[in-house]
From TrEMBL, chain A:
One Pfam family linked to the record: Dioxygenase_C
Domain Intradiol ring-cleavage dioxygenases positions: 59-204
Region (Disordered): 1-26, 89-110
GO MF annotations in UniProt: ferric iron binding; protocatechuate 3,4-dioxygenase activity
Domain of life assignment: Bacteria
Pro residues bias locations: 1-13
Record's keyword terms, sorted: Dioxygenase, Oxidoreductase
Basic and acidic residues compositional bias, start-end: 91-102
Protein name: Protocatechuate 3,4-dioxygenase alpha subunit
Gene3D superfamilies: Aromatic compound dioxygenase
Matching PANTHER family: DIOXYGENASE, PUTATIVE (AFU_ORTHOLOGUE AFUA_2G02910)-RELATED, PROTOCATECHUATE 3,4-DIOXYGENASE ALPHA CHAIN
UniProtKB/TrEMBL annotation, chain B:
Protein known as: Protocatechuate 3,4-dioxygenase, beta subunit
Family: Belongs to the intradiol ring-cleavage dioxygenase family.
Pfam families: Dioxygenase_C
Taxonomy of the source species: Bacteria, Bacillati, Actinomycetota, Actinomycetes, Geodermatophilales
Signal peptide: none
Amino acid sequence: MNPLDVPPDPAVPFQPRSGRRGTGFLTEPLRLGTTPSATVGPYLAIGLTWADGAWAAAEGTPGGVWIRGRVFDGAGDVVPDAMVETWQADPDGRFPSPEDPRGPSSHPGFRGYARAATLTGEFAVFTLRPGRVPDGEGGLQAPHVDVSVFARGLLDRVVTRVYLADETAANAEDAVLRSVPEDRRATLLATPAEDGYRFDVHLQGDRETVFFAV
Amino acid sequence: MGGVRARPYGPGMTGTTSEASPSGLHLPRYLREDAALRTPVGFPEYRSTALRAPLRTPVDLPHRLTEVTGPVLGEDRVRPEDADLTLRNGGEAIGQRILVYGRVLDSDGRPVPGALVEVWQANAAGRYRHVVDNWPAPLDPHFDGLGRVVTDGLGRYEFMTVRPGAYPWGNHHNAWRPAHIHFSLFGRAFTQRLVTQMYFPDDPLFGQDPIYNAIPAAARHRAVSRYSLERTQDNWALALEWDVVLRGTEQTPFETDDDGDVA
């Protein structure tokens, strides 16, 4: 399709097939329209199941902890067809990613990323306690895990953060936590459990988890 | 100025030069698409969103290290045969064979190389190989509906499959999903993570599908592939082209180096 083929009487604002928009030809940077998100639907297990999904840190890594939790809907029912993904720093506060401007970390056995379904009613990821990560403005963030939740009935992922309830001092000075209304901060705290932490996600309701716009 | 500030980053930085930057590094800021062009998380006509889509306004999360980094999930996760969904279980899938190809770009137009692309879909009869899907359409013993590829150095991907069928889903009376292929993509950063669906051109089922119509009208065309005669393979397969655009970064073309005194 020739991008100059403007329909004579467009029912919707014309956009070329490429998604390029704006009238800044030659004067503004190229900007493509982003692809819109869609729900993962009920059959995500077909495409997104990995045998090693749960292991942000390799099985048996010393100091490893499980983060377990459930996802609840607005009626208080457990959501059994969600997928939870986690991404976090290693215990030194560094990331196994080439996008870390300090250089990628190489903590043995640490992937930093996990994905887990809620088919059994509960998700579980095995990881290491994240270290404190610089906030880019001279301070340090409290240890945290970025979380995406995908499910049928969610047309886009929802994003939240896990903080550790036993990091009281670090949490008290964390800029992101402080940006959250005080009466809702507890929804972001994972509580110590036998083999790690518990973190439940409430999609709606009185205890609706704080979700973030990233 | 009052001497060198404690730098959070040691190795790799010239920590002994004077007037160190207060932050020690520049982090990209990923652009947010206009709200009017993004799919809302909930949409009343899609009934399952009623009890699941959060109701409170999300809190803005600044883009710090956790958000601008992302996992490396590459070649070791895919095998060459994962790019051909038409050959499974020692036989050929039934259906209209199609080549689906395109590029993964960011909104600056830069290709995203080495990106993991996971796809899943119904078979030609509109049936998923999944315990929850039991409507009376046949399963195909030679089709499992799962594909995985990693983009090449120019951000290109392609896979061979069969055109998925439409299927009923009970959202409303006589509700049928338009044919679609599910896509899951990782870019370079947590901010770029995307799960979406690719549609086929001119599907007559678009008008009654709330999942398609949840996309703002001005952005719907971005979810629709186009037939490609150039890549259609004579006597073998039709081709469909679909580019996926992930979020790009704010352009700062005249940014100066905070550590200006070092080369």
